[in-house]
Write a structure and sequence with these properties.
With about 325 residues, this protein is mainly alpha-helical. It is about 65% helix and about 0% strand.
Length: about 325
């Protein structure tokens, strides 16, 4: 991308926003990161205290697989404020990277970006600010959520060359952190990328095995009971649940009709999205495929809070 003096303006605005957000989240945000940290502290504190799936903050328990808890251990070894600032900076960096990816992708397809000839690389910072202003990204930042990291892993897996390391390895790791990214395997399936599907499965299986090796009791608890307990995530009928099941409940549907309607719509959604992905793959529209995968992920999950939908800017672009 071209360099222009005017690019310094959006770059400076982005940096100022980052500085402001660091101050904000340290003082007023980070609830979810504190829960991640509490889970990791059950590992660093050793035996004798509450277990990984027993700790909670304001009745919100740790809900991710043991592999995710192991990844959060560094946050348990640093002050809360430092961890919150670090997570915010990571989220900001990913927002800028997504802005750069979209800018580069659109310009390569011959679409004229407004003010591109004046801003050059500043378009990435401008888009990053707009991305950050969207509801899912604002809430992800406020809560200290890991959704942006999930986006990074998934999108990077589809954009990288995948020559030596097969595609799917980063999606498997993302699935090991939060399970729902496994929905992106449908893209590999529609591409008939059998090597990628095998790699995704092996990568995800490796995260499960790591959990059993280092946290055997917690892994057994998660995979036999906690993973299937929706009450640990929150009220399914809460207005912010944007999944298919959430919308059905918002519209007043309840058991015994709720589950058949939910599973039927999930199946129909997967079939329709598979047909759409087939067409997008024929046209080599990679970012559109990832956008569809992101929409599928939040749709078929039993609970998807609005801040889980960090693919929203990518969906708009597509």
């Amino acid at each position: 991308m071209k360099k222009h003096p005017a690019a310094l303006i959006p770059h400076a605005l982005f940096v100022l926003t980052v500085i402001y957000m660091v101050q904000y989240v340290i003082n007023d945000g980070g609830n979810d990161l504190y829960i991640y940290r509490l889970g990791a502290e059950t590992i660093t504190d050793g035996p004798g205290g509450p277990g990984l799936y027993e700790v909670s903050l304001d009745n919100y328990p740790f809900t991710y697989p043991p592999f995710a808890a192991l990844l959060f251990v560094p946050f348990a070894l640093m002050p809360k404020e430092v961890g919150m600032a670090l997570m915010m900076l990571i989220t900001a960096g990913i927002a800028w990277w997504l802005g750069w990816v979209i800018t580069k992708y659109v310009s390569r397809r011959g679409v004229r970006i407004p003010l591109y000839e004046h801003l050059g690389t500043g378009c990435a910072s401008t888009l990053a600010l707009l991305i950050w202003a969207s509801g899912p990204w604002r809430l992800t930042t406020h809560f200290g959520q890991i959704n942006a990291v999930i986006l990074l892993l998934v999108l990077a897996d589809f954009l990288r060359p995948a020559t030596r390391i097969p595609r799917g390895v980063l999606i498997g790791i993302a699935g090991g952190i939060k399970l729902t990214p496994l929905a992106f395997g449908l893209i590999l399936l529609m591409r008939k990328d059998w090597r990628g599907i095998f790699t995704l499965g092996a990568s995800f299986a490796a995260t499960v095995i790591i959990g059993f090796i280092f946290l055997p009791h917690e892994a057994f608890t998660f995979w036999t009971s906690a993973v299937s307990d929706p009450s640990r995530v929150g009220n399914i009928n809460f207005l912010d649940n944007i999944s298919i099941q959430g919308w059905l409940m918002h519209l007043g549907l309840r058991d015994p009709l709720l589950k058949p309607a939910y599973y039927g719509l999930v199946l129909a959604t997967i079939v329709l999205f598979a047909a759409l992905l087939h067409q997008l793959n024929r046209r080599k529209l990679v970012l559109s495929q990832v956008a569809v995968g992101g929409f599928l992920m939040v749709s078929i999950s039993p609970i998807s809070w609005s801040h889980h939908n960090v693919m929203f800017p990518l969906i708009l672009m597509a």
